[in-house]
Amino acid sequence: MGENSRPGRTGLWLLGARGSVATTAIVGLAALRSGLVRPTGCVTELPAFGSAPLPGWDEIVVGGHDISGTDLHKTADALVSAGVLPVGVVSAVAAQLTAVESELRHGYDPATGGGDQAGEVARLAGDMGAFARRHDLERVVVVNVASTESPWPRGADLDDVAALDAALAAGEVPASVVAACAAVRAGCPYVEFTPSTGIAIPALLRMAEQRGLPYAGSDGKTGETLLRTVLAPMFTERALVVRSWAGTNLLGGGDGATLADPRAVASKLDSKSRGLHALLGGEVAAPLHIDNVPDLGQTKVAWDHVHAEGFLGAPVTLQLTWSAYDSALAAPLVLDLTRLVAMAHHAGQRGPLTALACFFKDPFGSAQHRFDHQVRGLHEWVRVTTEAAGGGA
Amino acid sequence: MGENSRPGRTGLWLLGARGSVATTAIVGLAALRSGLVRPTGCVTELPAFGSAPLPGWDEIVVGGHDISGTDLHKTADALVSAGVLPVGVVSAVAAQLTAVESELRHGYDPATGGGDQAGEVARLAGDMGAFARRHDLERVVVVNVASTESPWPRGADLDDVAALDAALAAGEVPASVVAACAAVRAGCPYVEFTPSTGIAIPALLRMAEQRGLPYAGSDGKTGETLLRTVLAPMFTERALVVRSWAGTNLLGGGDGATLADPRAVASKLDSKSRGLHALLGGEVAAPLHIDNVPDLGQTKVAWDHVHAEGFLGAPVTLQLTWSAYDSALAAPLVLDLTRLVAMAHHAGQRGPLTALACFFKDPFGSAQHRFDHQVRGLHEWVRVTTEAAGGGA
Amino acid sequence: MGENSRPGRTGLWLLGARGSVATTAIVGLAALRSGLVRPTGCVTELPAFGSAPLPGWDEIVVGGHDISGTDLHKTADALVSAGVLPVGVVSAVAAQLTAVESELRHGYDPATGGGDQAGEVARLAGDMGAFARRHDLERVVVVNVASTESPWPRGADLDDVAALDAALAAGEVPASVVAACAAVRAGCPYVEFTPSTGIAIPALLRMAEQRGLPYAGSDGKTGETLLRTVLAPMFTERALVVRSWAGTNLLGGGDGATLADPRAVASKLDSKSRGLHALLGGEVAAPLHIDNVPDLGQTKVAWDHVHAEGFLGAPVTLQLTWSAYDSALAAPLVLDLTRLVAMAHHAGQRGPLTALACFFKDPFGSAQHRFDHQVRGLHEWVRVTTEAAGGGA
Amino acid sequence: MGENSRPGRTGLWLLGARGSVATTAIVGLAALRSGLVRPTGCVTELPAFGSAPLPGWDEIVVGGHDISGTDLHKTADALVSAGVLPVGVVSAVAAQLTAVESELRHGYDPATGGGDQAGEVARLAGDMGAFARRHDLERVVVVNVASTESPWPRGADLDDVAALDAALAAGEVPASVVAACAAVRAGCPYVEFTPSTGIAIPALLRMAEQRGLPYAGSDGKTGETLLRTVLAPMFTERALVVRSWAGTNLLGGGDGATLADPRAVASKLDSKSRGLHALLGGEVAAPLHIDNVPDLGQTKVAWDHVHAEGFLGAPVTLQLTWSAYDSALAAPLVLDLTRLVAMAHHAGQRGPLTALACFFKDPFGSAQHRFDHQVRGLHEWVRVTTEAAGGGA
């Protein structure tokens, strides 16, 4: 890399490309590229990232897989009705949506294509590679924003490629892992934005590292967990002992329906709880619920009740209610991650990008859950990477 | 100072020594000294302070001024009834309360002693000095926890000692300033724990510095403001634009009654708002109320409603309700500040202790309101001061 | 009146016809008439009103006064952007909006027409009468939904018509009273939906009664006050003693801006507090705030904190947060009141319609604030009036 | 019964007599009898009950069963530490506690006495009868405040005494039913204050009626459900369509631990949900959780989130947080029910006392869940019963 070397044209390949998060990211990227909106919610547009060698909004090309066939324009219209997307913006970027629509391919569907998982890996990897060639891309960052799967405990035992191949041959592998295999096979950096298994099996992680691929995850930290990793350190820094931290999440939309499945919700609850216990210790009572409340549509409401003990045993209680469109919180982070992973890849970084911990509930390769420490780590990494690329102040 | 030099016996002289915060601090210190309770809520007992040269709980001797004559035991009993203090602890430390009771002196009362403010300064300074000699103290840290006064704009113009003396001669000086003059005159480090003027007039600050005295303030950051300075950076680090941050505080007790006076509340509201605007910029709508609700007794309830704008203009709302005994939050910080200021004084530090910003709503000498940055600053200062004293890891 | 006599074609003349509440009512009425929407929020569509002789949606014709000249379509579009009105509905009723637009006349504007209030009364009454003749209406119900005015204490002393005429001649009369004079002069039943003075001066009330006109008011009970008059009786029926009931209201929109004026807010706060003290007695601490928070747009957020004392002094606390588009809560009540007042007028009822107390924060002619008792009173009145008209089961 | 006939000396036999609710009721009754406290929280002390022929506080004698052996004084002290009972009151009534202590007998314990349920019924009935004779009581009202049991579906099939006897012989009957059998056998009116089965099996209900016994239940309506049955009618009377009503309950104490058992919680959740669906229809999404949070001690915190649809589909949201000591809410209702059931028994009423519906989550013999209608029903019944007894205004 020369001075001020920049990552260049970068693909963003979305797994679950027709879902709410993906559609919001696609519409938002188009709007940013067209200068229609301010980059509110985009971390990489903050001053601290001003001289970082990131791909510009107009250097990112989007494609992806999905098992749904619903047209992007239709999903975008539904998100307008739900209040997530502004009507004017969606109509202004209609042509860009059409362009992305033409880059979407049928994903791996366990219900129909389950029989030949090895073949499906090859097919998906082929789609990613063709996309890169078609658009002359330096790299394609694959980001999983598909529906949450249930935990796959067996994955932790798949230590070598042969074992993984055997599992594929047996048709036992979850969809997120099939897609992550394809990404690694196709030489793509990977971001796990859901709590699904995805790339997180030993054989795949090793393969990614060997091929010089950086990866990051898992489970985007957008709402309640973000709050928790900001607030829990406040209690500990004031020497207040948190005794219980109870939470209830109400959500509708597709996410609510997926998480109404007790197996899928198990992944999510695990992921959400880990940070809290890491920050406060295991003795905190922390009941947590996720309820499917369809009438809330795209809105996600989280209520937390914290009970702490202070000086001479005096009680302190804190209640929080967070209400937001989860897709609108997640989408800009997907774009930020695409840029940052592209920068890392361009800089020759490989393996888990621990500096991206602030974006995730359950960060790969990091035990750091404190948001303030995570943010400092991110800034430091950006500074160092920028300097190495010949940039910076 | 030699290796591992320690600050030694330290006085804590409380202005408003018979109030709820002071009584809670006095009872708590006695309980800590006797090993009756764990140091929950005491920042200086966290691991980061483990090797710092702080006075031990048994090296701190308490005295103070108050214009009320209510016996400490009586106030302590009232705090037991209110739920702030545990009944067993108060009876176990009764003898220590009696000892402190004997160290309390009548404070400066504008209603009766207004005529001769210069004489009152001398009298108060005399009380402080006699206390130091009586107990053979290395220093006496004066901490103001008396009732909040209204703002005193004239104070900002008192640039030299002559002007201050003239104001004293004219009997125009607020009680907190009279007491702060006495503290400086008596060679005592000073902590302004309320939003009153206290030491914060140019002539006094300069005098303190000249006499080698460190000082810190103002207005202890215990509840709602603490939350705000923790949460506001979360929004900015996620590039979410806060549009409004509305707050309502309900409080009873003496504090509620004092703040029912619109002039006194003005000090408090100024102090509370400053941090928010510093963190988010001045364009945030931030209506704020403090209501006297006597039936809440010692409980303070704060409700905050935050409205932010996210990606593509999507709204985010956060509501917080904080409920706690304010005295129980403030008291351990008073003890922490006594220890830390003693350490600073022993180390020869003078002037505003900006490293203590995390303890205050409106920190002297610092524009830093972010709690995470403040905490880092504190830890760094403790590390450096500890090393300079020959301690540390 | 014969058997099953019905009130027939009825005018709804809106004071403040271009505001958010009026526009929402106009769009909603059009949508109901066209069968585009279900009558959610319309009390008069509940089963209890099934056989009442009310004018049908297609028998109500709308006109009104406003001092703004902003086109209804434009206001409707703004309400679509704000999320209050569904985009499809507004476009489907565009022609009906145009029709109403042609029935709007310039209102009385103190800033410009202040000089000749008697002449203005005559002009406004003329507009109302012409409207009735133009559409061959049985009656015109005038409903004030214009901006809240400050209290007008002098109004209470205007006991006879001569005194009122003198005040008009002197140009001293608030706009709402000028318009109410016009309504009475024109023989129109009147509904005061705001806390402004309107018809509530002795001379006008007597004149209305003499002319056989029913009237109702004041200040529509839509949100926080509705909750309070539902919940306060729960405490009293359980013998729990409410000690404090604190409230904060955050609102944007035009209403927020109007109520940022401390004189206007005084009317509103009076009106809101009256019911609570009537239900719980005067010893309840009840601080109440209304804050203008422009970024909330049409959303109104109310937070209430209730502290009660139970058995053996045990505390009970209840917190409420209510969030809604106030215009969407008010608009259907405006339509309900139009129908119910038309029914009363048709039945020959005159003077204050105390049976409509459940619709108001500060009901004319009634000291009953309990919502359950008010609802029972409404149902009983509807039953009796329906039977008298020859209808009912 | 003659004129102004009064029910006379009445026993209150508590099942679970050493628990928090029972102890609070016992202490409170003693304090009321001694005139130490005002009857806050006691419905029967409201003006509407002023002339009703109820037993006086000094006419109620308390005894009971429990399987725990913890002394009442000890439980009372624990409730003082927890903040539920005032320290002064407990010490002032110590002698009365000792008197009640001497009236407590060992209850039926499935863990140890499971073998001979018929014998246990006889033993428990014997205790109740002996208590009545010992104190020369007109009747003994048995009130179940023991721990919640899991549902017992088989109970609904026990139509005749033979079947019930067979189940007892087989040792299959839950503890609450064993105790209710004893109560009926001993000729005692019965109140089911928990969601356990208790008297609610066909054979027992018929037997109670035949023996001239009134009964009431089930599951005291103290907190969240009370709020729901007050607020749900507000929405329906305003024609607002509730789409979801989500709830989370956090509780510690013994109740929390009992309800951590998923089988016990099933009873409670059933009981809590029934009213909501009755009031709003079955289409409301109503996820509900009860979490054991031991550090909350006696405090019960309930959070409800209501989402409704208003005019033209506009959303309305309401959040509620209720925080109280559940025992302090339940105890006065236990005393009220004792008095009211005594009055009913004295008046010769038998079978389900539907007029007492306002006290229960799941009222026996009534489908009326609206609190306002229930209260009206109670008042009407008291009026009629009072008049029949020769009293009243």
Automatic annotation (TrEMBL), chains A, B, C, D:
Any one GO molecular function term: inositol-3-phosphate synthase activity
Top EC group: isomerase
Keyword Isomerase: yes
The enzyme's E.C. designation: 5.5.1.4
Keyword match Membrane: no
Keywords tagged on the record: Isomerase
Pfam family, one: NAD_binding_5
Gene3D superfamilies xref list: Dihydrodipicolinate Reductase, domain 2, NAD(P)-binding Rossmann-like Domain
Swiss-Prot/TrEMBL GO biological process terms: inositol biosynthetic process; phospholipid biosynthetic process
Domain Myo-inositol-1-phosphate synthase GAPDH-like: 223-327
Family under the similarity heading: Belongs to the myo-inositol 1-phosphate synthase family.
Name of the protein in question: Myo-inositol-1-phosphate synthase
